[in-house]
Design goal:
globular, two-stranded parallel sheet, single chain, about 200 residues, alpha/beta, 6 helices
């Protein structure tokens, strides 16, 4: 009624993870309740036409004071001298939250609607991403323990190969999101301010 556009953050968890390279046109098949709920909202918004923008995101990370995302949790775990078990078989697109925010503003400003994959350009398993984070922050990676998802006892099923393609986003914005190494360097610079 106000002429506003609804922007909804969905997830790569709408896919079953049987392969990577999911596009916006691929048929979703979620494995868990989280993915099913995201898909239900996507389907509701699909009838809204130009009034809805759906963003599928994955592997969000960034600097925050509370250790909710993987990068900050890893730093805290290392500081406490504890090992960190990291899935070596869960593949996603690490996505730096400020880069996601900038892309969302640009998409909204262009009047984009429909579904867009808005993620970092690289597909990485979580262990390899953890190694890159350790390198960026100067951490000894020996505290990382690679594990298969089946060994972690996670309550909900996870899509193992959930990498998203972003060609549609790049066409719309004329650019892709920066790679994770660049974003990790930004966080490392922020961390130095608090040392």
């Amino acid at each position: 009624a106000a002429g506003a556009k609804t922007v909804f953050f969905s997830s790569d968890y709408v896919f079953d993870g049987s392969r990577g390279g999911w596009t916006e046109a691929d048929e979703p098949r979620p494995l868990n309740e989280y993915g099913r709920q995201k898909l239900a909202v996507e389907r509701e918004l699909s009838g809204w036409g130009e009034d809805a923008l759906v963003l599928r995101v994955s592997g969000l990370f960034g600097w925050e004071f509370k250790p909710r995302n993987f990068v900050v949790r890893a730093r805290e775990t290392l500081a406490e001298g504890r090992p960190l078990r990291v899935p070596s078989d869960q593949i996603s697109n690490p996505t730096y939250a400020p880069d996601l925010a900038a892309a969302v503003l640009d998409l909204a400003g262009k009047g984009a609607s429909g579904i867009y994959n808005v993620v970092g350009p690289d597909w990485l398993n979580r262990y390899d991403f953890a190694l890159k984070a350790c390198s960026a922050f100067g951490f000894d990676p020996s505290f990382l323990e690679p594990r298969l998802t089946s060994e972690l006892g996670q309550a909900a099923a996870r899509p193992l190969t959930a990498g998203l393609k972003t060609e549609k986003l790049a066409r719309e914005l004329g650019r892709a999101l920066p790679p994770e190494e660049e974003s990790l360097r930004k966080i490392a610079a922020i961390l130095k301010q608090y040392e």
